[in-house]
């Protein structure tokens, strides 16, 4: 059974409660949608803040795929405040910011960590995309099957609040 809801754009919600993107702009298998727009402020994640571990510009077909960023997961804010499937403790500022010039390839963000990590992404459309364990084991992964050009602000959270070393990867190969 599918129910069509207006969430600022057409979306289809299946029985599992996960949003499916009928146009293929968002997430594919192994990804989750966390809710609508959230404008930041005190005690909230702030996409306009300078990224903790840097920023990069990539164009579709980029070399050195996958691109990897080493960082520390976690922070002082509860991602559950964003709603939907968002979980884990994240920092106020994004951990990494990607400005992406889209092409025809899917774009996947994932995390590899010994700790139970989560992933929170504020996409170019202003929506929040979140995942906990779709990358295998306790690793998160979010795939944009038809990614949009623009800024992706990325947070790597700690599910149980235990920060740890993590590698964020960005790839078009999955």
Mean pLDDT: 82
- With helices defined by DSSP (H or I, 4 residues minimum), what is the helix count? 0
The helicity comes to under 10%
The coarse silhouette is globular
Distance between the termini: 28 Å
Largest pleated sheet: 6 strands, mixed
Structural class given helices, strands, pairing?
Answer: mainly beta
Helix-strand sequence: EEEEEEEEEEEEEEE
Tell me the β content: 35-45%
**Secondary structure tally: strands:** 15
Poorly predicted runs of 5 or more residues: 1-41
What does this entry look like structurally?
The chain is an all-beta fold and 174 residues long. It is 0% helix and 41% strand. The strands form four sheets. Strands 4-12-11-14-9-5 form a six-stranded mixed sheet, with no helix packed on it. A hairpin with a 5-residue loop joins strand 11 and strand 12 (128-131). The two termini are 28 Å apart.
């Amino acid at each position: 059974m599918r129910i069509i809801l207006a969430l600022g754009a057409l979306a289809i919600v299946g029985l599992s409660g996960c949003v499916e993107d009928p146009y293929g702009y968002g997430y594919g298998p192994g990804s989750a949608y966390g809710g609508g727009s959230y404008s930041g402020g005190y005690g909230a994640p702030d996409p306009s803040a300078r990224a903790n571990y840097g920023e990069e510009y990539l164009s579709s077909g980029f070399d050195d795929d996958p691109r990897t960023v080493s960082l520390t997961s976690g922070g002082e804010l509860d991602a559950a405040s964003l709603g939907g499937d968002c979980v884990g403790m994240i920092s106020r500022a994004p951990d990494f910011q990607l400005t992406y010039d889209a092409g025809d390839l899917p774009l996947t963000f994932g995390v590899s960590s010994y700790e139970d990590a989560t992933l929170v992404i504020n996409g170019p459309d202003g929506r929040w995309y979140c995942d906990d364990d779709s990358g295998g084991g306790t690793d998160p992964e979010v795939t944009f099957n038809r990614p949009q050009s623009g800024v992706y602000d990325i947070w790597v959270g700690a599910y149980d609040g235990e920060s740890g070393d993590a590698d964020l990867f960005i790839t078009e190969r999955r």
